[in-house]
Structures are given as C-alpha cells and as structure tokens.
From TrEMBL:
Residues 9-245 form the ABC transporter domain. Its main location: membrane. This is ABC transporter ATP-binding protein. GO terms for cellular component: plasma membrane. Keywords: ATP-binding, Cell membrane, Ion transport, Iron, Iron transport, Membrane, Nucleotide-binding, Transport. It is found in: Cell membrane. The keyword Membrane applies.
C-alpha cells in the first residue's frame, strides 16, 4: 500500500461561467490531504462545476486550481486523470459491455491506447473489482445489473484509475436508501484503506452530515458555509443554503446532526 500522503486540493479565487451566465464567483476552497468533504447546495449553485474544475475538465476564467501544489491548468486532461478520478452523475450504458470491460476503461489514463490494446487486466483492475465487491460479477453484462450494482461498478472504474484523489458527483442519485448507504459506506471504507482525498457532491444533507468530516455549502456560485457538520448544520444553515425552515437535532448514537425540514421558505420556480 502507498503510505505517502495523498494530494490536497486548493481552489484560489476561482471564477467560472458561460456567456451571460456566471456559475462560480471568487471561490476559495482548500481540502487537506486525506479529508472527506461533502459539497451541498441547491440545484444550479455550482457544485458539479466546482468538481469538474478540480478534476481538470474545466479551467477557471480567473484564479487557479492546485492539486498537491501543481496548477491543473498546466496539465493536460490525461495527465490530470492520472492524479484525480471523477465519478460523474451518470454515464450512458454500453450494450453488451461486461463489468470487467467497463472497469478496465478506468486504466486508459495510466496505460494509454497502446497499453489498453497490448495488455489485459492488471492489478489495479483486480483490486478495484475486489474493493467494491463486484469481482463475482466481472463477466456479467453491465446493463443486466440493478441501479445499485451499476453504481458500485462505476465506482470500481473510478478506482481503477489508481489515483489518490477521488471526486464523486451525486453518487447516490436514483438509488434506494439501502444502496445509498451501501455506496457511501464503501466510499468511507476505501478512503481509509487506500489513503485518499475525497470530495463528493450530495443532495441529502443528512448523508453529508453523517459521512463527511466537513461540509461546504454553495449558494449562487459562492461558498456560504464551511466547517465540521456539528458546527455548520443549523436551522440558519437550512434557511440560508437550502431555502427550508426546519430543526436540527443530534443522532443519539453517532452524534452527527439530524435535520428535520418543515416547509420551504420560497416558492420554487
């Protein structure tokens, strides 16, 4: 196992937008090596865009993004993919592709097209299959799996990139509660076992408060709250970040905040 410290992430004064539509405004965010951070906020607040900046898929209009002290703008996409893996919200199904074949796609950044053609399955693929508990399905078609099973396979594909930074964009979307917990518990376990820095976008504030060490909230492209769940998740947080009136209690066993939303504060548009 690699015992070196995983890279930290620094976003410094970052702006990003499209013509006539600013998305992120003057974002400063530092994620220390090995931390598990959750990004939360309303739809359209910039969470996924921020994740794509950190993955090197987008470049800020102003400011910069550093990974382990290196400016991502100076790296190509493939070079960035050798250092940071991003699990997107969704991916199109590939009819007939097996679990093993899909997970192998995660090795492209490390091995390149010739390596993918020349060599078969390597140790990183076998480890990813085993770590996510999908090795027994390796020869099954992906499109024959349930939603929860597919998400674990997609997580295995991200892990096959063999990076020390893992970004997850709404990894529990469309999953039932059992599979949501299964995926999040797997992420927490793998983060500890592999020694990774993890940032994940979550819609469910309850999951963020339970599983993350730190919650960062965005509103209208700006960071409006940042800290340990016990410190930042309050009734005022629910109102300012999520436009919801509600109460916040404490889980009697784990001590993390538990949210009780009562009603929306503004009409949806």
């Amino acid at each position: 196992m690699d015992l070196t410290e995983p890279p930290g992430i620094s976003v410094e004064g970052a702006d990003f937008g499209y013509p006539g539509r600013p998305v992120l405004r003057d974002v400063d965010l530092r994620v220390p090596p090995g931390e598990l951070t959750a990004l939360v906020g309303l739809n359209g607040c910039g969470k996924s865009t921020l994740l794509r900046l950190v993955a090197g898929l987008l470049r800020p209009d102003r400011g910069r993004v550093l990974l382990g002290g290196d400016d991502l703008a100076r790296l190509g996409r493939r070079a960035a993919a050798r250092r940071v893996a991003l699990l997107h919200q969704s991916a199109p199904a590939v009819p007939g592709m097996t679990v093993r074949q899909l997970v192998r796609q995660g090795r492209y950044a490390q091995r390149g097209p010739l390596g993918m053609l020349r060599d078969g399955e390597d140790a990183a693929v076998r480890r990813a299959l085993a770590d996510t508990g999908v090795a027994s399905w390796a020869d099954r078609p992906v499109d024959a799996l349930s939603g929860g099973e597919r998400q674990r396979v997609r997580l295995a594909m991200a892990l096959a990139q063999d990076t020390r930074v893992l970004l997850l964009d709404e990894p529990t979307t469309y999953l039932d509660l059992r599979h949501q917990l299964e995926v999040l518990q797997t992420v927490v376990r793998l983060r500890a076992e592999r020694g990774m820095t993890v940032v994940m976008v979550l819609h469910d504030l309850g999951h963020a408060a339970r599983f993350a060490e730190r919650v960062v909230a965005l509103r209208d492209g700006r960071i409006v709250a940042d800290g340990a769940p016990k410190e930042v998740v309050t009734p005022a947080f629910l109102a300012e970040v999520l436009d919801v009136a509600g109460r916040v209690g404490e889980d009697p066993h784990g001590g993390w905040p538990v949210c009780y939303p009562d009603h929306p504060l503004t009409a949806s548009t």
